[in-house]
Amino acid sequence: MPLARIQQNIIGHLKDLSLLSDQQTEELLKTPEVISGSELETILRKQFKLSDFQILIGRAYAFGLSPFNARNFQVDESTFKDLGREFCRE
User: Fold this and answer.
1) What is the pLDDT of residue 72?
2) Alpha helices (H) along the chain
3) How far is 16 from 62, CA to CA, in rounded Å?
4) How far apart are CA 16 and CA 24, in angstroms?
5) Using CA atoms, how far apart are residues 41 and 20, in angstroms rounded to an integer?
6) Whole-prediction pTM
7) pLDDT computed for residue 82 by the predictor
8) Alpha-carbon distances, residue 66 vs 6, 15, 28 (angstroms)
9) Where exactly are the structural domains of the chain?
10) Residue 41 CB: number of other CB atoms within 10 A?
11) How far apart are the C-alpha atoms of 57 and 80, rounded to whole Å?
C-alpha cells in the first residue's frame, strides 16, 4: 500500500466523519502509486467532491488536533498568554 501512514489516517478520519463511503475509502487505500499530500488533496477535491474545509478537518484529526472555526474565535487577553501580541501582529 503506497500511501503514507498520515494519508491513510486522513482517509480514515474522513470515513469516520461520513465524508467518504466504505467503497471510496477502499478505492483510495488501494491507490497503486505513491502520491504526495497535495496530490491526495486534489483527488479528494476533484474526484470525491470534498471541500477544502472538509479536508482540513480530516487532516486536523489525523495530526491529533482539534479543528475550530477561526471566524468564531474571540480574541481576549488570554489569547496572548503563550504568544506575544507583537508576534501575532507580525
Assistant:
1) 80
2) 5-16, 22-29, 37-46, 52-62, 85-89
3) 11
4) 12
5) 13
6) 0.74
7) 79
8) 16, 17, 24
9) 5-66
10) 19
11) 25
| pLDDT of amino acid 61 | 94
Write down the pLDDT at residue 1.
55
Instruction: Report the amino acid identity of residue 46.
Output: K
Going by C-alpha positions, the residue among 52, 53, 79 that lies closest to residue 68 is 53
Which residue is it, cell 471510496? 24
* pLDDT tens profile 22-71: 999 999 999 888 889 899 999 999 999 999 999 999 999 999 998 877 77
- Measured CA to CA, the distance from residue 64 to residue 42 in angstroms comes to 22
Burial zone of 69 (CB within 10 Å; 0-12 exposed, 13-18 middle, 19+ buried): exposed
Contact 67, 56 (CB under 8 A): yes
CA distance 40 to 85: 36
